[in-house]
Amino acid sequence: MTHSGFVGGRRLALAFVALLGFSGLASAQDSLTPVAEQVNKKMVKLFGAGGFKGLVSYGTGFLVSPKGYILTVNNHILTTTDLRVHLYDGRFYHAKVLFREPELDIALCKIESDVDLLPYFDIEVEAKRARAEPGDWVLAASNCFQIATRDEPMSFQKGVIAALTELRGRRGVFDAPYIGEVYFIDIVANNPGAAGGVITNRKGELLGILGRELKNTLTDTWINYAVPIHAKVEIMQDEKKVSVDIAKFVREGMAGTYREGKRIKTIVDRGGYHGIVLVHNAVSATPAFIEEVHSGSPAAKAGLVPDDLIVYVDGELVPTINVFREILRQVGPGMEVRLEVQRGNRLHTIRLKLEEQPKKLSK
Amino acid sequence: MHQGLKISGRRFGPALGLLAVAALLHGASVASAQDAVLKSQAERVAVVAKVKPTVVAVFAAGGGGGGTGVLISDEGYALTNFHVVQPAGPTMKCGLADGVLYDAVLVAQDKVGDVALIKLLAPKPGFKFPFAPMANSELVREGDWSLAMGNPFLLATDFTPTVTFGLISGVHRYQYPAGAILEYTDCIQIDTSINPGNSGGPLYNMKGEIIGINGRGSFDKRGRVNSGVGYAISINQIKNFLGHLMAGIETDHASLGALVATQTEDIGLGRIIVTSILENSDVARRGLDLDDQMVSFAGRPIGSVNQYKNVLGIFPRGWRVPMEFRHEGSRKEILVRLMGAIPKEIAGGPAPKKGGPKPGIPGKKGPSGPGAKFYDPKPGFTNHYFNRVEKDRLMSAFKKHGDFSGLTGDWSMEGSIRLKKLTSESPLKINLSNEGEGLASISVGGIPYTLRPFKDTGEASRRAPEESGGLLAALWTYKGLLTLGEKAFTSDEFHHGGFEPFYPPPAEGKEPAKKADWRYPGDTEVINAKMGNYFVKYFFSRADQKLLGFEMRVGDENSDPCEVFFSDYRNVDGRQLPHRMQVTYANGHYGTLLIDRYQMKAVK
């Protein structure tokens, strides 16, 4: 742990160098208090639905306009008619949910009273900033565990960006409320009530929105992530694919013109035809050995043969038959997957293009 | 956290890249940046090295759990958690970073605050333990850096503490109790990694001063390991209790005698309103009423119930604190005496069978080893041995202001008195005579009052003169304290009572300032004593053990005492005596005694 602190301290000063270009070099152990105070004023404590089955009834959000628009995570606490907000100075208000975007897992709320001149994060500006990189120092702020009420400040934690990468959820194995680019952080930040909080850089500039509590059921580990403020997803509006980012959501949400789109359906249980018959799924961890290949099927055309062991699909490890089926259920007709199969002692790469299910098989 | 360690090597990649760019742009400045980094790192290493010897690895005697502590004096006094010593019992083994295992004994515990004081036994006379200074934790802010040291998972078999470095996540935090005990009020929240075994260990600021004692975390689903949310008991709270702890007292926290709630129907800022009040509480006698709005408590503005619980929780039972409230539109300020927090049956009687950790004398284990001869449990005390130590130290220092032990004969005081209700001064004469079993008399402007302290049972005599609350009896106990010391009081009813604030009222004619400004700088240490039906508390300056005043209550715990404030100390035959005494009772000033002449006789 001493080593970690050592590295941390160094890194902190280096980040400082990069940001300020030596104009105001200070000690590596400078207090982050001024930054914390500045961020805290833009944060709100939210209280809503929950309080049962391990679902907490509190959460975090932050102001995105001086007039009381609040951005937060699109989770269960918003399913209430009595959403309550505590501002940094202890003021208490009621708020309502204006818009949600499930694909970004965010929601826009508004304080129902007339307020103005509140400190806020200007999303238009924040979203244009350069992305943080792995190794950059970050500060996390949230009302995890409902430690604060009224004018008590948020909880602040420090750490580094571990990675900026895709969060890839999969049903049953690794359910994720959001699928897309995320900052993974080395802070134990995604605690109860922390979702909707922020991560910022050392200057208090917004980098991302803290995600929900998320556990990888395969490895039994908790994951700490934030949705980057530049995050972008595709949704269906009027039968058309439209790209939405957080800034657009906030801009159109505050103008009252945002149209919640339809989710682009992931194809589940409607996967295409491949013609592979796997060995009997005897135990829960049966490896994906091929028992038989239908003649004339895509698998036969691709050159798969019995006794091939499927090891990877599109670069993803396939430890069991169940995982293979889970993945293939989401691959529709006309789509191509890349398989890595072990045949004897060698690995072969095989491209498999799925087709429509033969009529007699699809019901 | 271990993931953080694994990737730590990679963090340099982009950083060094940026540094290279910066180097091109800024040339020579790079060297100074590196110097600053190295300097800051060297400072941190130096602080760790400095405080390392003060960290204590606490082990239950005979194995079975343990935790951490920190030395706060060269005599070997160390702070830890109540929940660390509870399973250990009254004696324990403590390892220091020098690799030596020391015997230790439990001195006192604060069950509500989860604090315990232990004393490591010096291996030889004159041995000085290393210790860490205590900071002013009011100055700690979120965003500050901190170091936690201790023995997580009881890793260190050679007693070398583990150090972790992190951020102060929040201050003035409130964490709910388990039943009546283990309530963390006004605590410090940290992301500095603490794990089981860190309990009781120090949280240092970057100067190596103690800002808190690490004790608990928020774990929820994560299991009892670091969840990035840990809590330390603020050292300022512990300082309030330190006098009690040093004196071996089984401490209790405070309650107000009134309940408050946030008025939530309005939007905007919350108002804290009194929703119920105990009729016989001090706060009710001072004028607080139902529906009054609490404005500030102990100098802190109150805007939420958490804030109120936070500030109430840092004080011991019996302390007086200033409080402001709004009553029917007008703002009032009072000094209120705090009541106890632990229900009587828990504090005194046998431990309840169900629910929560069992209070009472810690552990089931008896004392063992060399610490056993320093262990003397008694109702109201964790370890009364240390009460005698503190009391003897105080009384011997007090005696330096004057030795009255030969003067047990008749006493008289003459001078004048300025009663509040009169503008002019009247002649005053007081006699404290041994006649019968004792006869006290006072003449105020020619009106005589007498009291036979141990015979009269009438309330009027005991509280004479009227509206003083019992000045005559009070002076009688004062003479007893000076001449006979502990022997003047009921047997086994003369104890050190820890540290307390003391609020001498401003001299007459002076503009009354805020009540907080009355507080005697440096505070007092007190003796609680009983003489027959008179309950007395003497306030001695912590700086030089001069007697600053006292209060005396007749019988009932729920009645107001007569309060006497001393000043104008002058030398009388080589002894220091106060020549001015301000006397107050209940909500009013009774009068000011100006003594011109003391006459003190020895017994023939």
Explain what the structure shows:
- The complex is a heterodimer of chains A (363) and B (604).
- Chain A is α+β, with helices and mostly antiparallel strands and 363 residues long.
- Chain A has a 6-stranded antiparallel β-barrel with strand order 1-2-3-6-5-4.
- In chain A, a hairpin with a 2-residue loop joins strand 15 and strand 16.
- Chain A is elongated and about 70 Å long.
- The termini of chain A are far apart.
- The longest helix of chain B has 23 residues.
- In chain B, the strands form 5 sheets. An 11-stranded antiparallel beta sheet of chain B has the order 24-23-22-21-31-30-29-28-27-26-25. A 6-stranded antiparallel β-barrel of chain B has the order 1-2-3-6-5-4. In chain B, strands 7-8-9-12-11-10 form a 6-stranded antiparallel beta barrel.
- Chain B has 11 helices and 31 strands.
- With 604 residues, chain B is α+β, with helices and mostly antiparallel strands.
- In chain B, 48% of the residues are buried.
- In chain B, strand 26 and strand 27 form a beta hairpin.
- Chain B starts with a helix and ends with a strand.
**H/E element sequence of chain A:** HHEEEEEEHEEEEEEEEEEHEEHEEHEE
What is the CATH topology assignment of the largest domain in chain A? Thrombin, subunit H
CATH architecture group name of the largest domain in chain A = Beta Barrel
Whole-Å distance between the termini of chain A?
58 Å
Looking at the chains present, what oligomeric state does this protein adopt? heterodimer
CA-based gyration radius of chain A: 24 Å
